[in-house]
Amino acid sequence: MKYQIEGKTVPTVAVTLNNGESMYTQKGGMTWQTEGIAMATNARGGVMKSLGRMFSGESIFMTTYTAQRDNATVAFATTVPGDIVPIDMTKYQNGMLLQKGAFLCAEPGVNLSVAFTKRFSAGLFGGEGFILQKAQGNGMLFLEIDGDPIEKVLAPGEVLKVDTGNVAAFESTVSYEIETIKGLGNIFLGGEGLFLTKLVGPGKVILQSQNFGDFAGRIASLIPRGN
Questions:
Q1: In the structure, how many helices (H) and strands (E) does the chain have?
Q2: Which among 53, 96, 179, 204 has the fewest CB atoms less than 10 Å away?
Q3: CB–CB of 105/76 below 8 Å?
């Protein structure tokens, strides 16, 4: 399998496969393909995993694209302006936790499952839902990032506080909880809401520079409303 990330505003990852090699994505993730690609859509992993994907913000059904000849290509694109981050999952045997919407596509050796946050408060107030996705296995995983990606490696005990919605993914070794912003003035006048996401190392963290939920909210506020 070979891949090339193309484009800047709404990029695509074009994956060139040899005969028998596959990639899977959520329904509707494919952008273009050459001759020699077979498509199969199903509830990958069974009914329970499919329902878990629904609660984590992904589609119930996954589509697998399999090459029926050498050098067949299939491409997948982001849904909003941003970037694509490739991850070799063989380097992260403990797995990666993904926020909803971060998964773009992966090789079949990468498994997606539902992962609950370790602390209930993180899921209740974190802004991204109580259910995350866990990616684990061998092969390439591609993440869809809103805006630009910022990658950091936290040392043991190192703390990183992030605005809600700007966390894209992190290693399973990184703990994840919610911290209340201190001070009434900061809460009501700071414009950052009530909570920050607190990430504690060790492990890799991938942030996204754009909080698409906030962006969509700003656009919605500018739309004229009828009387």
A1: 4, 19
A2: 179
A3: yes
Q: In the prediction, which pLDDT does 32 show?
A: 96
Regions of the chain where pLDDT drops below 70: 44-60, 116-131, 181-194, 212-222, 226-227
Query: Can you give the pLDDT at residue 111?
Result: 92
CA atoms within a 13 Å half-sphere pointing along the CA-CB vector of 217: 6
Neighbours of 213 (CB within 10 A): 13
Q: In this structure, are residues 27 and 58 in contact, taking their beta carbons and an 8 Å threshold?
A: no
Q: Which two tokens stand for residue 47?
A: 């009914």
- Three-state DSSP at 195 gives strand
Query: Partners of 13 in the beta sheet?
Result: 5, 76
pTM: 0.82
pLDDT digits (tens, 9 = 90+) for 155-206: 999 999 998 789 999 999 999 887 776 644 444 444 445 677 889 999 999 9
Buried b (16+ CB within 10 A) or exposed e, 53-80: beebbbeeebbebbbeeeebbbbbbbee
Which element (helix H / strand E) includes 222? helix 212-222
Q: What is the model's pLDDT at position 122? A: 46
**What is the bridge-based pairing of β-strands 96-98 and 167-171?**
antiparallel
CB 33 within 8 A of CB 71: no
Cα–Cα separations (whole angstroms), residue 103 to 54, 63, 132, 151, 164:
13, 13, 11, 16, 18
For residue 104, give the nearest of 146, 76, 74 by alpha carbon: 76
